[in-house]
Amino acid sequence: MSVISDGVISDGVVSDGEVETTTSTILATIVTTVISTLATTQEDHVSTRFPPPRNWTPSNATLKLPRMGNSASAKQVADQVAYGVISCITVGVLIVMLYMSVFGQRVRATAVRWHVLNCSLWGILHLISYASFAEKAPWPNYITNQNWRDTARQVECFTRSVFPAGMVFVYLEQIILTIAPKLANSIVFNAIFFILLIPFLNGLMIFLYYAHFMDIVWWYEPIDLFNLATYLIFTTFTFIYFLFCLFGTCLCCATMTSKKPSSRTTGTFADMWLLFPYGLIPSIMYGPSFGMTSVSFAMQHLLTWVLESGLLTGGGGSSSGGSFIDMNLLMQVATNAILAMPWFVLLFPLVQSILALVCLRMFREQFFFMISCGRIFEGKRAKIGMTEWNVTSIGPPPLYPNSPSEKQEA
After folding, report:
1. What is the dihedral of CA 332, 333, 339, 342, to 10 degrees?
2. Does the keyword Coiled coil apply (predicted)?
């Protein structure tokens, strides 16, 4: 089990080691570990209690750890160039998102504002670290700080935890604001989510990262465990939020047919639904990296339970009965996920920024406000329940006098 738990690979990040390992190595390690656990014992190397699944035939080929030479292949070089270009573009986009989050006139002081601020700030750190320690890093080993190099895996878990952890609070706030939109005008209400997302969440993650350096024997690596827990909570809240959107649709119909004035408008329910893809798409992209992070935890703490539960052998470890899991399909899915994972990890910050511009009305309006020099969505946002946000079309450019005589006449 130490092959997995003590490995130097985590979600596409390669730390210092004697053997350079690729993504295929991860799959090879998983397969060999599972096979050896199911098919061998300590004495006679023949499993009687946990036989191999009936519907899976192991490959006859011997799996060996591949070694890369001093000269990288043409594909490796092309991937490194692509990584570098995407990283530079993404950093530029994140800087723009940071500017809009801090100084945006059209951006309300709600939870999603601080969430985008967090994702943009820590996304830059994510790209800086990933560009040095990824398997196809464009600038390998340019980070010389030894503590950073030793904890590259923990740094990546840290940065990947920002989005799912923050979305839990964003979902909660959006549910409340859909029911009572005027709370967005409350300083106290906004201050609560500011404290939860900025001091509390960031402070907690920083503490869990530095817990790695404490002279304490932890039950499990703190930041890794936080990453696992937040992703599970995040996906659960995504499903709960989808159910609320269905309820919100019924509420929208009741509001539209009601003759009584209400602070809820069609825009309120449009914002409600648009937040769903903003959370759903990243939850899918986070899946492969979460799976790889969970492998180490599963091998250390859940492997015995999985074997005894019969999930792999057809129930209770008995040799009779069919397996509940099609291992061929499972390994095919795992292979495709591992191949896609490095690109998903690289594209996290860029995809999140694009989704923020498309799905979040305040950032969409602020973006058009910026590129039109204030001609679209002119002025600051109005309070909810007072007037709708000031949406204007592009008007004619201002007229300036061209000559001294025209200035005197003006």
Report:
1. -160
2. no
